[in-house]
Design a protein that fits this description.
349 residues; TIM Barrel; 13 helices; 41% helix; globular
Length: 349
């Protein structure tokens, strides 16, 4: 129904307008008791074989919603009905910010991809906390944190620490995002020394709590092998808990969409099927070179159970979807979990 009826209607709208339309519709309808009951029965798949324990947290299944869809924690209870094992909110910043000028989100249907230059648009971490306090579901929540655009890089650590402290009681794990291509100079924080200093500061602040939360680092797919080696060294030295691989890519060489069309869109990160191969390569490299020293959440181009299995076999412990849900519909989560369940049954010792 989604691909034959709903998707064609949504794809007639501007992508960001379609996003807000979908948000409003979900908010109005998913909270109705009969609708929520039907959704839960239709989309959820519970089986002990799907359960995973990663960095001390028990996930009911390994399929999560990637950051960027529900930046401000507005749809936690509603999205939990779709069968996700966990939801990542953000990227959140200390102060509210509008993000980059519109238009800033674009579809590439020929590639089943998206280009975005949203620029960490969000209502600020404190507004998100007000919503998290009221949530009803117990689903695992990750808090993806970043810096405000106006904050210079040499003061960025203050923004990350502010978000960590405000969010700490309300999320189950944290993601340090230094890999978005849409905030000026943000990716400079991925360089070895700045990144090491940032993660040391975040880890120290987190460890001061009675119950520290897992800390993960989200990295770009555009890093060289040498830079990935640095990531492995930094993760092990700072003793953070894992890596999310990967964010969107600035590489457009694999796109099938007409070059003039792509160039007319302008700057932005590419997500979708085109990212699948590279994100898997990064996962495999990190897992192999580190001898599986830390957990990896795999994200990028997951449109089927086979895509998810590929990420897991490359070394990921969990996976996340976003663009795949836009093109395939919400039933994608259950289809992935069904495929994973069959795979786990066949490979179970």
């Amino acid at each position: 129904m989604y691909k034959s009826l709903i998707k064609p209607i949504l794809f007639t709208k501007d992508p960001e307008a379609a996003h807000h339309f979908t948000f409003d519709w979900i908010k109005r309808t998913f909270s109705l008791p009969i609708v929520s009951s039907v959704l839960k029965n239709s989309f959820s798949l519970d089986d002990p074989l799907l359960e995973k324990e990663v960095f001390g947290l028990k996930f009911k299944n390994p399929v999560g919603l990637a950051a960027g869809f529900d930046k401000d924690a507005k749809l936690i209870d509603e999205m939990a009905l779709l069968g996700f094992g966990f939801i990542e909110i953000g990227t959140l910043t200390p102060k509210p910010q509008e993000g980059n000028p519109q238009p800033r989100l674009f579809r590439l249907p020929q590639d089943e991809a998206l280009i975005n230059r949203m620029g960490f648009n969000n209502g600020g971490v404190e507004a998100a906390v007000q919503r998290l306090r009221k949530r009803k579901t117990s689903i695992i929540i990750g808090g993806n944190i970043g810096k405000n655009k106006i904050t210079p890089n040499d003061e960025a650590v203050n923004d990350y620490l502010y978000c960590l402290n405000v969010l700490h009681p309300y999320v189950d794990y944290f993601v340090v995002n230094v890999s978005s291509p849409n905030t000026p100079n943000l990716r400079d924080l991925q360089e070895k020394e700045p990144l090491k200093a940032l993660l040391h500061a975040v880890k120290t602040a987190n460890d001061a709590y009675d119950q520290p939360k897992p800390i993960l680092l989200k990295i770009a797919p555009d890093l060289t092998n040498g830079q990935l080696d640095d990531i492995i060294e930094i993760v092990q030295e700072t003793q953070i808990d894992g890596v999310i691989a990967t964010n969107t890519t600035i590489d457009r060489s694999q796109l099938k969409t007409d070059k003039a069309t792509v160039e007319s869109i302008g700057a932005g990160g590419v997500s979708g099927k085109v990212l699948s191969k590279r994100s898997t390569e990064v996962i495999r490299y990190l897992s192999t070179q580190s001898t599986q020293a830390f957990p990896i959440i795999g994200v990028g181009g997951i449109y089927s159970a086979a895509d998810a299995i590929e990420k897991l076999e490359a070394g990921a412990s969990l996976v996340q979807v976003y663009s795949g849900m836009i093109y395939e519909g919400p039933n994608l989560i259950k289809r992935i979990n069904q495929g994973l369940l069959e795979h786990f049954k066949k490979t179970k010792p």
